[in-house]
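Hi R.,

Here's the chain you asked about this morning:
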Amino acid sequence: MATMSYRFAPRVPPPPQDARPRIAVFGAAGATGQLAVRHALAAGHRVTAFLAEPAHWALSHEDLTLVHADPLVPQSLHGVLAGHDAVLCLVGHRPESAMQRDGLERRAPLAALATRHLVAAMSEEGVSRMVLMGAAGVGNSVAAGVFGLGRWLQWLLPEVMADKERQEALVRGSALRWTVVRPARLSHAPASGHIHVGENLRWGWRGIPREDIAALMVRLVDDPSAVGKVFTVA
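And the predicted structure, written out as tokens:
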């Protein structure tokens, strides 16, 4: 009787899934946003930088993905947040040039509108964690500014500060697991590692290095005790 033998190829296990968090950074092209991307990569996260003009981005890294999307264009956000674990939102007001200030039409602050679209996109994809860079001089931090600095900012930059109020209110009123960081005046100084962070903190005009804010926001992503809290940085 003829016999037959069978040889089976060894079963190859599937490649292990990458369990590292995937962080989305909006406002990545800004001065603080670029630093946030670098700090998130240094912390071992997988990072997606969302950019209106990706061609102008210089940094390259094996764990960095560039996506062409603009939170002011809600259609561009459709589906782009799938698979992400958290969002760093550094969408803010871009200072106008002298030529723009002298023009007949001034650009209205749009941080709140962009953030509204972003919150909706996060809800659509089930991404619940957000760390927002707000600003000192918003909410209860108005009264905490030394020498009336909070009220002075409200008078000097009424449209910008009103937009930041709306932006923060949108996030705090959402179902997201949010944290808000309110830095005082941002500076381009090197990281100091000596910033004061707290709720209802008194703040002044001391420059806060953008590097320190970026590092703080990345650390807060994984801090469950920070959810639902607003921190002033001074």
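The helical segments are 31-42, 98-102, 111-125, 149-156, 158-172, 210-221.

Let me know if you need anything else.
M.
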